[in-house]
Amino acid sequence: MDKVGLVLGIIVVAIIAVFAAINVSYALDLIFFIAFYAIASLSLNLEYGYTGLSNFGKVGFIAVGAYIAGVLSAAFNVPFPLCVLAAAVAAAAVGAFVGIPTVKLREDYLGMATIIIGEMIRILLRNTPTNSVWGGVFGLRGIKPPFAFIKDPLARQFAYVGLSVFLFGLVYWLIERWGNSPLGRVLKAIRDDELAAKSVGKFTYRYKLLSLTLGSAIAGIAGALYAFYFLYLNPDTFIPLITFMIWVMVIIGGMANNAGVVLGTAIVILINRITQIAKDYIKLPLEPNYFQAMLVGLLIILFLMFRPQGLVPEKPVNTPSWEVLEKAEEEGRAKPPGGEEQ
Amino acid sequence: MNSNSRNSNYILEVIDVRKRFGGIIALDGVNLKVKRGSMTALIGPNGSGKTTLFNVIAGVYKPDSGKVIFDGTDITGWPPEKIYHRGLVRTFQVPRMFKAMTVFENVLTAAKGNPGERFSTSPLRKIWKAIELKIAEKAVDIMELLKILHVARNLSSAISGGQMKLVELARGLMSDPIMLLLDEPAAGVNPTLAHEIFGFLRNLNKEQGISMLIIEHRLDILFDYVDYVYVMHRGKVVAEGTPKEIVENPVVVDIYLGEA
Amino acid sequence: MLKKREVSLLLMMLLLLQSPLYAVSINEIFSKVVPQIPQIFLDTVMLGNLYFLIAIGITLTFTVAKFANFAHGDVATVGAYAAYLLYNFAVIGGVVNGLAVELGYISTIGGLIILSIWYILRRRGYGNTLLALGIPIFLTGLTVLYGCYVGANLVDLIIVAATTSAVTSLLSYLLVYKPLKTRNASLVQLMVASIGVALFIRYALYEMTWYSRTYFNTEIAYQNFGMPMTSYQGWFINGTLVIVNATAALYFMNKIPAIKIGAGGIKLTSLSVEEYYKLPPQPNISFTDLYIWSTITVIVIVLGLMLLFKKTKIGKAWRAVADNPILAAACGIDVESVINLAWLVAGALAGIGGLFWAIRTQIYPELGWMVLLNAFAVAVLGGLGSFWGTFAASYILAFAEQLGVSILAAINPQFTGYRFLIPFSVFLLVLYVKPEGLASIKKRKA
Ligand SMILES: Nc1ncnc2c1ncn2[C@@H]1O[C@H](COP(=O)(O)OP(=O)(O)O)[C@@H](O)[C@H]1O
Ligand SMILES: [Mg+2]
User: Fold this and answer.
1) Per CATH, is B1-87+177-194+211-260 categorized as 3.40.50.300?
2) Mean pLDDT across the stretch B228-232?
3) ipTM value of the model?
């Protein structure tokens, strides 16, 4: 394991432990946020980190998931697992709709299309009738909590956060498996040089479209988790800034490195929480929320410039093939040719 | 028309292909044929349209008009990935590495028919492990043959230009191609090594029967290896023949002297 | 030719768009929309002007930098704010604002210093960037001082908006995109970096509004620009168009300035109050100064750019760099200067566009960002990187939006909230049907 990553990971866990010692509910909330954002940033890692797709509308896909799950639960009493499933399907459909025309074009088009879709979804949600379930600018209410049968609120929160962490683990496992397989190689090949990937026979259009669709489905799941945590949704929480927070998490964590991305997520959220707490004690001639957004912008630029690989750089795709190489090396077949080059 | 039959003498036929970029006419009615199992060279001064022709054959550009027939199939306008699966594989003049990946992964990626490359099956190692191991062994063999096994663990962006060319070639060989299009496979390499590479290619050609069309500048190096030569100039084929005929062809001498 | 798949998609979209119509009879909509057509055309020109001013900058930087700049809208906001602050706060209560004066002097002198450094270094060949920075900074200073001591008029505001945005735009290139390019950043990374720049600028402006609110008790977000506008109203009477200065009608007792346009030519006249009140209560068309200013500005800019591209060496160099920067450099063209100029011009036009948008709606830190998404739709419809494509797309999209809004309003006035959907739907439709945009139509003819 990478040293930087290990040290930072221990610090993160330690900070959460301190929070937990002070206030359990607060720590649970913190853990939920990390799990929620980690699912979102892992989905972006699949799209951008592995496949090189520029999805600038992540928040829109989360919103689709959240609202579909929310409406199904609030208006139709659909049980929690089905809501999550529906959220994934709906977000995937939106992803495919954007992807079909754009992933075969230059990267700019996907970037512009996703950011526009993200804003379209938000403004559409704002303009839904306020007297319908959707709630318009007043927001969506009446989502049924999945663990309503647990009476103790702390225990209920604990159960739900536990479930979220479990879902996060599932997503992490899946993307890690995708990444460490021949598929991971193909996706990275497309990211590094699409024409070369085509020239070695990869149907890049299909891969890019699937990557965007599945990434969107995962974002939809994150959205559903969000809906059932707060039991209330407001269109104005799904602003583009959320998307770029997620980008920061992936960029500082390290693209195509899932552990790095989760670490990046935890770091960004902890910084956010700590500044929220600190602002009550330290007075600066600045508005902390705006300042934080400026920092998000600055961090994006600085990392791209000085550490584009992120805090935890990506690793070679891990498949059994390396054993074959190792054996060949042991047999002494990997000798450099006599003298020249090196 | 026997051009439509697989048993045709010619593995590749380019018929009156034209391609322009804005005002530049890069290909001005190119005709050429590559004999099945032969090693054919394509020479010509810089900017004469050789690479553009490769790009048209391999599906990177659609020709404005004309046809490309490969192994009896009209592949004009097919996308590159489909052409690859048909058995026609190309390399690039300027090597295009998957630069954040190791050399080993670069070569592995080029394999055909790996079931682990699907979203549905890749999480289940059992399904693809055996084939992956076979592919890895093949990759190791090819890399050993090309003498790049010692850089297998290096990032592909951190090896020498000559090695990149060899990685391109290794990728091309991973799929057991029917035919290879090689764009200056020995460019920027000293003559000794160039001879070695061409010798190796000739062996491949003889032993595995892979047809080849090779772009190269240095006639002197080519002559010992190739069967037939096409000469391009300003988007047209201006001469063809055996290496011997070409050296004696006044047109070719003119072009090359005119360049100098 | 459209393919079958495309045709069926188009039909589906059209059916979808029509679905709300079934609620109301088509006749009813027609009868409501048709009388508005002259007004729709006028509004199209105005909205198209504003779209053009923002979108053309995206196109211009795209020609040389080859990536979609997501910070372009926020660069426009900077210019709009500079003009807004100069217009409203250069002179407060009859007293010249000391801060503005200081800023004016700093900027003038700073610009002069940069220019003199350039003058000293110019022979060594790396001073051109200083020239590109020095001129707009110097100009900004002068215009601010002019605004303080003489009073800010529209031309002054246009210049200050243009120069501040130009400096912002060039700095974003010099400090962010250029170093990234030398580090071989990918296209996606450049786009992400431009989003970083966008966030930084936008929230710095938010911070500024917060600062103003907290320390000066002055609200500078979501404010009207405050520039007095003359409004005009027009009637079609017996084949002549009578345009009346409606603002004057509020103040002048007699002699309201008017223009009559008809078969007998154009005649400047004036109406008496009685005549004015005899006109029908609802005018056929109405517009303001902004329609006129923005149109004049766009005409000047289009002519200027035409001259630049067709008649000057710089224009030739620009096109060469756009085609192939390596070849251009080999031909002895100073590629860096051309790229600097592209960022300056794009920024300047964005600033002017931002100013007009602020005058039309309100000033707020998110202004440019809201407009940017529409401008992307314009740029893509125009065929990313094409000048005339962008020009045509600006007005086509503006027309679609104005017509669409009228139809939506005719169906149900509440539906006008969906106005934003129109340019965005056009954008998605273009991606599905013709991603090369309008530029491909012209190319095919050639
Ligand atoms: N994508 C392209 N766009 C514009 N011009 C091109 C493009 N590719 C090649 N050309 C032009 O076509 C001509 C032939 O180039 P090329 O095929 O690379 O020649 P060669 O490989 O024989 O050196 C050159 O003039 C080159 O500038
Ligand atoms: Mg070439």
Assistant:
1) yes
2) 92
3) 0.91
